[in-house]
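sorry for the late reply, my laptop died twice this morning and i had to redo everyting from scratch. anyway the thing you sent over, i finally got around to it. pasting the sequence first so we're on the same page, its 300 residues, then the predicted structure underneath. double check i copied it right bc i was rushing
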Amino acid sequence: MVRVVTFCAAGVAALIAPALAHAYGWPIQPFDQQHAIRGAFDDPRSGVGPGGLLEHSFHFGVDISAPDGTPVYAVAGGTIYIYPDAVDVKQPDGREFAYWHIDAAVVEHSSVEAGDLLGFVRAPWEHVHLAEFDGTNYVNPLRPGGLEPYTDTTTPVVGPIDVDDTNGRLTATVDAYDIPPIAPPPPWQDARWTPALIRWRLVQDGEEVLPWRTVVDSSTLLPPRDYDSVYAPGTTQNGPDLPGHYVFWLAHDLDARALPDGIYELQVAAEDTRGNTGTGSTTFVIADDQSRNTTNSPSR
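ok and here's the structure:
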């Protein structure tokens, strides 16, 4: 039998990360001032694909709020490549920046420098999607050494945590999200972000039974094939006047029968790119009998 009591506690852990190479300013003016972002890296995305089937993926950049018609500028120099809804600036080493939802004001294969005008935010998007490719994969522009200046003192929210047991196999999920440090303008003022890092571990009597396991690491773009192993049912993306609901898998099929009877604590930590960390935990009891029901108490 598994009896679960859930509580959540928020905490902040300061992380001082060294500045990395290739830091760059913002693509809208003022370049040296932080702007509101309504969509974060690796946020859930759903849409209708070929054949009318619903497809899921991870957001491969950040959505910087800006009124339609706002000028958009290059954050780094390179060669221009124009696509139907994007302008790419590619560098010889394979690094590139993509600016989506803009009307181009540049010519195909021309050269630009940092600070040069690329185009204007296209209606009705009211944002520019900035994506950074490092030559191998898309990377999070909000990492230390990416978009600067960037300050984040908000703490990710963790909970509720749900643990279920079927025939001695444990599954666990957690609701978790980060809060933008600057609220985007309406109707996106309640937008939520995916935490940059989510981990969990199992503890009994103060002793670690299972060490920290990472279930989300948004330093690079996650492949679409991993969507259903990262986001659990009930996940929805941000919408106008409707915050997203992010549910993450912690354990899919943990063999509870391999664990001795007793009281366990499942601890979860969700961290942003600046080291602010929210925490939560669930306690449950494993007993060797025929009934293995899970009971949750409200988060607090």
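The chain has two domains: 2-14+152-286, 37-139.
thats about all i looked at so far, will dig more tmrw
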